[in-house]
UniProtKB/TrEMBL annotation:
Keyword terms: Electron transport, Heme, Iron, Membrane, Metal-binding, Transmembrane, Transmembrane helix, Transport
EC class (word): translocase
Cofactor(s) the protein requires to work: heme b
Predominant location category: membrane
Organism superkingdom: Eukaryota
GO molecular function: metal ion binding; transmembrane ascorbate ferrireductase activity; transmembrane monodehydroascorbate reductase activity
Protein name: ascorbate ferrireductase (transmembrane)
Residue ranges of every copy of the Cytochrome b561 domain listed in the record: 14-217
Organism: Pelusios castaneus (West African mud turtle)
Length: 222
């Protein structure tokens, strides 16, 4: 028997809710895994993987999911409260990323190693620069009158799109880090593949959540 449109919609919302909850758990679990693996404080370098995973795997994931109608932890809160939390999480993520970048640069300087000579290093630098620009660009949503030639609806669409691109860049950098000597020495076999699956899973969930819950809806609005 064919399903009614209402039943299909209910099933779809349920699947999106389950995928969102999974993203919450995976981002938290992966960050805890990286904290245990890196043991922040055991060396100067140890702070780099911890801060970067905290920034891009946990804080940025939560900052984007806060607007999800099905899986946001603040579903009952006002739009204004969600925006404030989004800003707080994104600024905290940027701070962790900048600190993580500064630490790895200083650590390489102390050890006489070249900077940004690997795909991970180059992608990581691009991601941090992109995240910084994205945060500055987000100010246009706080002061839309400064952008006289742009409507608020368009600014929101562009900001959401750019934010998703930045998140995917961060996940790519995290995955490239898993090919580093430090990570492959500590994590091998099935554990390595499971770790790699974490940013892939959250990326897929966030792409679906952002595009369907925000971008597509904005496109059909007059």
């Amino acid at each position: 028997m064919a399903l009614t449109s209402e039943t299909e919609s209910r099933i779809y919302r349920s699947l999106r809710a389950v995928s969102g909850i999974t993203a919450h758990l995976v981002s938290l679990g992966f960050t805890i895994f990286m904290a245990v693996l890196a043991r922040p404080g055991s060396s100067l370098f140890s702070w780099h993987p911890f801060l970067m995973s905290l920034a891009f795997s946990f804080l940025m994931t939560e900052a984007l999911l806060v607007f999800s109608p099905e899986s946001s932890l603040l579903r009952s809160f006002s739009r204004k409260a969600k925006v404030r939390l989004h800003w707080a999480l994104q600024l905290l993520a940027l701070l962790c990323a900048l600190l993580g970048l500064a630490i790895i640069c200083y650590n390489k300087y102390l050890n006489g190693k070249a900077h940004f000579v690997t795909w991970h290093g180059l992608t990581g630098l691009l991601t941090v620069v992109y995240a910084s620009v994205q945060c500055v660009g987000g100010l246009a949503l706080l002061y839309p009158k400064l952008m006289k030639n742009w409507t608020l609806a368009k600014l929101k669409v562009y900001h959401a799109t750019a934010g998703l691109v930045g998140y995917l860049l961060g996940c790519t950098s995290v995955m490239l880090a898993m090919c580093s000597l430090w990570f492959t020495t500590s994590v091998t076999g099935l554990s390595w593949y499971l770790a790699l699956l974490c940013p892939i899973l959250t990326s897929l969930v966030l792409m679906n959540q952002v595009s369907n819950a925000y971008l597509y809806r904005k496109r059909i609005q007059p």
